[in-house]
Amino acid sequence: HWYSCDGPLVSSLPQSSFRSSSQLSNSHGPGFAKVNRRDGAGGWAPVESNKYQWLEVDLGERTEITAVATQGRYGSSDWVSSFLLMFSDTGRNWKQYRQEDSIGAFTGNSNADSVVQFKLQQPVFARFLRLLPLDWNPNGRIGLRLEAYGCPYKSDVASFEGSGCLLYRFSPNPTPIRTAKDSISLKFKTLQNSGTLIHTEGQQDRSLTLELHKGTLLLHLRKGTVLITSHTVVSLGSLLDDLHWHHVAIERVSGHVNFTVDKSTQQIQVPAELSPFEINEISFGGVQCHGTQMVLSRRNFHGCLENLLWNEVNVNDLAKQRQKGNVTFTCAEPVSVPVTFAGAQSFLQLPGAALHLQFRTWNRAGLLLTFDLQQQVGSLWLYLSETRVRLQIHKAGRILLDVVTGFGLNDGQWHSVDLTARRGRLTITVDKEESSTAHASPSFPVVSGNNLFFGGCPDSKNNQECRNPFNVFQGCMRHIHVDNNAVDLIKVQQMLIGNYSDLQIDMCGIIDRCSPSHCEHGGRCTQSWSTFHCNCSNTGYSGATCHSSVYEQSCEVYKHKGNTTGLYYIDVDGSGLIKPQLIYCNMTDKTWMVIQHNNTELTKLKASSGINQHLAYFNYSADAEQLGAIITQAEHCEQEVFYHCRKSRLLNTPDGSPFTWWVGRTDEPQTYWGGAVPGSQQCGCGLQGNCIDSDHYCNCDADRKEWAADSGLLIHKENLPVRWVVVGDIQRPESEAAYRVSPLRCHGDKNFWNAAFFNKETSYLHFPTFHGELSADISFLFKTTASSGVFLENLGIKDFIRVELSSPMEVVFSFDVGNGPFEVRVETGGMALNDDRWHRVRAERNVKEASLCVDSFPGTTQKAPADGHIHLQLNSQLFVGGTASRMKGFLGCIRSLQLNGRTLDLEERAKITPGVSPGCPGHCSSYGHLCQNQARCVERYNGFSCDCGLSAYAGPFCQREVSAYFKPGTSVQYTFKEPYELTRNTSTQSQSSSIYSDLTLRGENVSFSFRTTQSPALLLYICSYYREYLAVLLNRNGKKQRDKENTKKKNLANGQLHRVSIRRISETVRVQVIYFVTINSGELDPEIARLNSLGFSGCLSVVQFNSITPLKAALLYPNTSPVIVTGPLAESTCGSSSPANTYPAETTHPLSDHSGTVGTGEPIVNAIKSDSALIGGVIAVVIFVILSALAVMVRFLYRRKVTFHSQEPKSIKPEADSPEYPFHSEPTSQNVLSENQKEYFI
Length: 1242
Prior knowledge:
Blueprint: E1 7-8, E2 18-20, E3 55-71, E4 80-88, E5 95-96, E6 105-107, E7 116-136, E8 145-152, E9 157-161, E10 165-169, E11 181-189, E12 195-202, E13 206-213, E14 216-223, E15 226-227, E16 233-236, E17 246-253, E18 256-261, E19 264-269, E20 279-284, E21 302-310, E22 313-314, H1 316-320, E23 323-324, E24 327-328, E25 339-341, E26 347-351, E27 355-360, E28 366-372, E29 379-385, E30 388-395, E31 398-405, E32 415-422, E33 425-430, E34 437-440, E35 451-454, E36 475-482, E37 485-486, H2 489-493, E38 499-501, E39 503-505, E40 524-527, E41 532-535, E42 541-542, E43 548-549, H3 555-559, E44 566-570, E45 581-587, E46 591-595, E47 603-606, E48 614-617, H4 624-633, E49 636-646, E50 661-663, E51 669-670, H5 684-688, E52 708-714, E53 724-727, E54 736-741, E55 744-747, E56 755-758, E57 765-767, E58 776-783, E59 789-795, E60 800-807, E61 810-816, E62 822-827, E63 839-845, E64 849-854, E65 860-863, E66 878-880, E67 892-899, E68 902-903, H6 906-910, E69 916-918, H7 924-927, E70 936-940, E71 943-947, E72 953-954, E73 960-961, ...
Antiparallel strand pairs: 1-8, 2-3, 3-7, 3-8, 4-5, 4-6, 4-7, 9-21, 9-24, 10-20, 10-23, 11-17, 11-21, 12-13, 12-20, 13-14, 14-15, 14-16, 17-18, 18-19, 21-22, 25-36, 25-39, 26-35, 26-38, 27-32, 27-36, 28-29, 28-35, 29-30, 30-31, 32-33, 33-34, 36-37, 40-41, 42-43, 44-45, 44-86, 45-46, 46-55, ...
Keywords: Disulfide bond, EGF-like domain, Membrane, Repeat, Signal, Transmembrane, Transmembrane helix
Region (Disordered): 1208-1236
Protein name: Contactin-associated protein-like 4
């Protein structure tokens, strides 16, 4: 207000303005209940101190009330410690004032003298105030003095009875001048749940209609007879037919409309050309003022409108001149006395028989009425069951009658029920509709006994007259008729008729907990009388309010949970507003996020008459907001562009205006091409100085008749992705061009590895205040050796939020939103968290509950108090790694700290903060287990990698089988290189010129997998030039043979994958050459020679001989390894024995829609290059097949071992990062070189 609205309202009122439920004596009357006055007995006191007492004040006229104050009775021990505040315009139909829309009770006094004042968060406009004591001094009684503060309230009111309306027409100019802002506002109150409040007619047949439908306001935007396709109808508000004032505002600002009902606002995006505010006339209360009945309008408004404003101009007086029908300018309110059944002990007892009533509730079940029938026929129950009205008559446990009617009666609307019994016919009618009427003809009279019980039964063990085997009713009732007469509920309240318990008479206390909805991200809200529930199905979010995303925020996170290449849902901002998106994750050494678009094929262009430019628009699988977040979060992004040309210039270098340009997310034309830098007007060849014509900076700018091309990577993230491309030089007769824009690719996650190391307990990082009033989620990773410490803390005046390590085995999440400190704890069951490994913490607090999760330990969830404070109000800085209070700070590392989906940049802040260092090394202790199959974990600054050098597997986690499919004629030969200089005689060297060295071994570990349908077959052969060999054979019957004896196994030549493992620890054996499948050397065992001549068809995979992986060397490192490949050999997935995703719990999809065709000389169309994934699968297949072959048939043929003496070998250790390193590595612990002998293993 520009004026003060805090004057006292009660102190000057006469005693006649006060009423109360009762008074202890004349000197304890309500007229003495004025703050700081000692008249009478010093305040009001009732006869009895119970929850049915009340004190009422009549302010004389509608007044704006901004604060209330209470005081105990003077000179006594009587005071009220908590109370409810009610208000009304008429002294009937009271409404409870609620703080934060949830808190009903006010805290009162703690003694008789002090004054406690409450400033109302929202002012109340009412004539009557009523205060209901809830608690009082247990050593005294109810005693009260009262004051209210505010100022006079003036308004213009119009009353409509369902047939009239008011019209305001813009005159003399029917087309008002367009302004930057237009608004319509009013207040209304009604008992009817439907009716038209506002209708406008504007230019070009545009109209706006505001309609009340089933207690909810609908805003319709129309143009002619066609509804605007999006945002045509917007609903807001609920339970607006409660006969209380509700404020409505419709405001146009630029290109959107703000629609406000009470304290809820919804923004509607409307194109400027379809704005509904270029209007000619407005009608209030109906549409008949315009002379036509609109289809959208069901009926005219029945109720009162107040302060009708158009652009802050009160149009009541102007519209009075054009009224139609019955419109008056005072608010005539009907008398309606509802009653609220709020608790488990609520019931209403009345005498009488046949009845009619109305009810409204959110509950699916509850007792409406019960009574005993005369002549001991039985008991009748009328109750809600699964949202339907059901009537049953029971006697001695038997159901004599069962009737059901109605449907969906828990929608919060008023529903009527009529129960009549005449001439042996029983009838139940719901909402006076024939379709909801049920009849029964019992063989006994249905006549009530002495009493009817509504909602429940008295809580008395001796009560034989009322029994309730069902749920109690929670909701409101009104218009109760017994014996065809309306029941005066005010007399019931005064205990003049009937009996009741725990009722709120003369008010309906129903609350719509789903309006506004606390369910986030599209979760569907349902409710009961006391709570609400969010259905998060198909939203991608979970939790009590659908706040937390079920998906990870990047491919990097999925990778470090052990997932492999595939399609994953990515939620870039976690619990933020950006929706999850299905994205392809190519998990090689770098983790690539690949975002496809609709135009990945090579598009060819030829000269066409009348066309000077070609425009191509790229629609990505992620929207603009998702793309922006992905690119910002990534460490690197790139997009490859191709331009093929013949007499079609690209950038028109060096001095001309570009013919072709592209536009990225900044919406600015970019005149550089792939491989160049922004603003250069160059292509990659121009930057490198190798264009085909040195006078130009692009190959295509040479304008030659021969085909040329310019291609390269766009890597400047601020301009990516390419949204559209304009190709210009295609109008000349000889011009031809082709272009292609590849998918957007990004790798790295700056948020996931963003970390800080706190090396002092007094060190901390500070950030702006955390705003999580209704929902707050906090997630991070930490590692420490300290026993305790505060991870983060943010304080308010009274509220706070904190996450801490309270002990080595417990994490505590604590906060206060006004209901007192609240703690959620997770204990790890004896497992220490200060083990210097990464541990993940996730805490969430919302209006329903608080939860805490630590790693995979069982999480803890605690419900929020019912009808408590819900807003978290903080005002200080957020402290990370320390605290503003005197609690112990944190020693260790914190990583990937996110609050409500937003990552805090710990590293950047740590660079300028003493006692805190950016980054945190040491990831293998936590993630090393992801490196499989004897792989070695290697530390990196941001993460780790797996070294597969000593493993027969490949892939980012060394989990991918290296496999190949062999055909007859295909062979792989691996020759051990000389690790030291060896002195031999000439004759020995001539026997095997291909042998570079020999190794003396004391044992072997041989393993491989195989898959074949061929038998007999030679699977593996290892020999020396001394005719010593080891052979693995598959017999004709598919049985494995060892030492020429068949093993009793099933047929292994069945096309299935089999794994073989051979281990020998015995006398030393000498190894020189390993052959696979086909042997091209001299003398062989006759049986082996015969099988060798047949060749082998099948799959070999994961082949390993001690530390040597010959098949992997042949497939992945053929140019740097001592291998000889004969015949066709290509990597295959034939040896894969497990699905690509080793963590099936994660959400992943196969790359079924990323296939495409390859054109000669053109880029792959609609395809994603995932060579590493393909190679991994092929390798896996090959290795599996080889191992299986050994398992099928192993035959050791031992011949005489020949030993000889030689010089002591000279050990040479190769460089670790050499590509040959895996094949030069020293033998394992079982492969020890002997000093005096070498043996050949055959």
